[in-house]
Amino acid sequence: MTLPRRGLRAIAALSIAVCLTAACSNSSSTESASTGGGTYNIWDPYPQFDDSSDWVKLLTKCGTDAGVTVKRTGYDTTDLTNKALLAAQQGNSPDVLIVDNPVVSTLAEAGVLNTTENTAGIEPNLLAAGQLDGKSYGIPIGANTLALYYNKKVLDAAKVDPATVKDWASLTAALEKVKAAGKKGITFSAIGTEEGSFQFLPWFWGSGAQLTQLDSAQGVAALTLWTDWLKKGYAPNSVLNNTQTTSWQEFATGDYAFSENGTWQLANAKKAGFEYGIIPIPSQAGGTAPAPTGGEFVTAPVQTDTKRYATTDKLIACLSSSDNALTTDTTLSYVAATAAVQDKQVAANPDLKVWVEAVKAAKGRTSDNLGTKYPKISEPLWNAFQSALSGGKTPADALKAAQTTAASATK
Amino acid sequence: MTRAGAASAAPARAPRRRSPQWAAWAFLAPVVIYLIAFYAYPLYRNLDLSLRHYTVRSFVQGDAPFSGLDNYRTILDNATFWPAFLHTVVFTGVSLLFQFTIGMALAVFFAQNFKLSATLRALFLVPWLLPLIVSASTWSWMLNSDSGVVNFALRSVGIDPVNWLTSPSWALTSVVIANIWIGIPFNLVVLYSGLQAIPSEIYEAAALDGASGWQRFWRVTFPLLRPVSAITLLLGLVYTLKVFDIIWIMTKGGPTDSSTTFATWSYKLGFGTLVPQFGPGAAVGNLLIIMALIFGLLYIRMQRRQVS
Q1: What is the pLDDT of residues A214-226, one digit of tens each?
Q2: pLDDT tens digits, residue range B3-36?
Q3: Rounded to a whole number, what is the distance in Å from the CA of B287 to chain A's nearest CA?
Q4: Which residue of B has its CA nearest to A24?
Q5: Which member of A194, A263, A314, A408 has the lowest number of beta carbons within 10 Å of its beta carbon?
Q6: CATH number belonging to the domain at B80-307, selected among 1.10.3720.10, 3.40.50.970, 3.30.70.270, 3.40.190.170
Q7: Which of A18, A19, A20, A246 to mutate to test the interface with B (most CBs of B within 10 A)?
Q8: In terms of Cα–Cα distance, which of B266, B297, B199, B68 is closest to A10?
């Protein structure tokens, strides 16, 4: 999950709606060049990069090495899933599709993606997000996840040592001190979308709860933690409506002690104008909580012309080779998917150490063979924390209702 | 159209009886193709989508089985249905009531043509000129619980701040307020131009008969504005029923469905989660179309009765 662009999403949805309803019937045509050489299409969710960027240069180079021309198109990340589905429906999928990790199992379920065996050296916890029934449907290009940013000045003023924040109790104690010192505690995003679930999961998993049983005692404990923070004023009420971007903006005002946010805010943190630090999200009993993995997978959609696969494999191998992965992950501000490249990253930038550890502890949302069931669990989950945080229901009641909905949806 | 066709066909000396027919069809073709491609087919596809059981797999393979009214049953049984229906009715009803009343009051006010009235009227059009994403984002910022300017104002006069967008009891009210603000200019402009069409002699006659200002409004202005009012309300209704962007930007339909209307729900089903549910999404969309259609038919009937 990278930075979402809500406005674009609406426009994208509209354009898809038009396409969905208007002209996208079932013609299976593949006019694109089919034999040796020729043009290979690559779609990615990085519209922020233009042809002069390192990323696009790398794509071009990989194409040249494989003896083909690469035609690259960048889409908004929320747009890409529907685009990929529509393309598959019309039989003109790209040769290489780089797509957000929770979407991989959806596309795999739809029969859009080929399996891959080239997974040596990749951290199993990252790979798992793209696995369904024991088969891998793509290679993670890199990963990001969540951790806690803190504002040194605010913590100093409240006499809190960030090193003492090891579990939920010590974190809540720290928030209490911050509030007593007249500052604000913590911001996060609890919005009623996938983004909110993404932010709630570290706490949910950190309590030992499982997505298959939302209303377990552990799950209730995690939601109670959040609701109590709101009740006691440690977290602002606006979290209910915060995206990760707006929650970051609150933190950037300099009034907040902590912010739950991702690797992608590192560049902004440097610009924030105050000293910051990063600690992993603690689990209930202590230690790093498993946060959900973000980041994209390189996948190979099914083609009618199977001769293209050989070149596609070359392109993917090129993109995921160690040297290139380092370039890509540096450009994207991601943590690499293999231990070897992770070490290189930390050597080059010690700031990344905490992120590498967070990624090692992280867990794919669609892992545990949840696959396409995950979205049907995630939606009741975000409804549950929304109703508990807004005071509509108690955490236990909210999660109980969510479990009923999720159970009937995933039957 | 037939005459134009005949004129253009004449120099070609084609058989006289047939050519005007063909030419007429040729002239009609663009509009017919346009209507079919952009209106009839999408409507048909939306209906088709709502009658089939789509999964991501069958969407790609194109072999979704026909499932009759299953999608409609699914949405009817969904816990969101009745709240969403109620919110749609309240959102549309309350918005229309206030937009129309305030728009009418302002139109009558500006009809008096005083100094600066043109400038002030232009100012009232501002909400209309702003892109919705701008006005909705601004509202969302103003109504923010912690840093919003509205709560700041409330606090400075000693009133407890309100969680405008994040409390289940206020979220719907907040989006209605924003929508009223956005809708006033439209009502103002249409009703104002309606007022211009009422001859001033009638007012003079009423004044001579000793009618007070209030009576002049209820006995003269209001009845004579009825046709204009009806079309304003109908257009406002269709427009308000489908309002999506304001709600989505301000609350995402939340917290937990407390500001969800059919429009946002339909979007949420179709595009708002990782696995799209096209069937139920299309079904909700169709319900919206039917609601608009009912009021459209009512309008036509009302108009006929007025004529006869």
Answers
A1: 999 999 999 999 9
A2: 444 444 444 454 556 677 888 888 899 999 999 9
A3: 16
A4: B45
A5: A408
A6: 1.10.3720.10
A7: A20
A8: B266
